[in-house]
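Quick sanity check, LysR family transcriptional regulator:
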Amino acid sequence: MEWLVSIAKAYGGGMQFQQLQYFVAVAETRHFTRAADLVHVAQPSLSQQIKALERELGADLFLRARGNITLTDAGEALLPLARRILADAETARHEVGELVQLRSGRVRLGATPSVCTGLLPDVLRAFHDRYPGIRLLIEEGGSHDLVRELARGALDLALVVLPLPSPSPALTTVEVLREDLVVVSSPDAPTPGRGRTVRIPDLEGERLVMFRHGYDLRELTVAACRSAGFEPDFAVEGGEMDAVLGFVRAGLGVAVVPRMVATRAGRGLRVTPLARPGLHRTIALAHRSDVAPPRAARELQRMLLER
């Protein structure tokens, strides 16, 4: 018990973490030179710090006999406590560092334009309110482009449409949502199919406002039309989500879009569900499997999954 009292007094006095690191290194290697190499310090400096620690404690920590280094009773008493103190200090540094990362820094998030319009605004607002020091860098693109940007390290996370393009780099994906697609049209134009729902065959002969090549929704809509036995007729093509919605409002044609986007788009559009089985898409959050996302990105990931 007297050694514990002596150690406690020393801890409250001039004992330093660096001295404890040197002490543990010598205790584990049983060699002053090897210990000095381990902690990247000159051997004389290490020896001086060990002697200073022994003076502070008022007891020898090592028996030095012809190069044979062993722990004294005081050294044996100090060793587990020193290891615990150093471990607690490392934990404290880690925890503080994690908090600091959430006060400043950045998150590089990729998303398809429709996800940017439908899913992200509310989540990003909540994230920004909680972590105002984190810069949010958003890159819009198709899933193919976003997968490529993830692979080269230009993004931390990406919201992509499953299934991923094949072949694709090693990515970890977590499903975020499964979303229905709906048909949007101008309120002044007749509803395709003239009913409460639209069947895919009802789109035959309709003028479609179509997204650009490489856009997930384009590929999904065209594939559904072809499965129904016809080629879609495009009134205008090549736009991003906002442009497509604007063209539909102007009466240029109809479009197939995610329900969440149609809901947020507000006035100026008629929204008609697709008849069962309908069309759906699965949105997933992806990151590289070989690199853990930064702390701030992991927090945004958590908020997206818990939204």
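Posting the structure with no commentary besides this: The longest strand covers residues 171-185.
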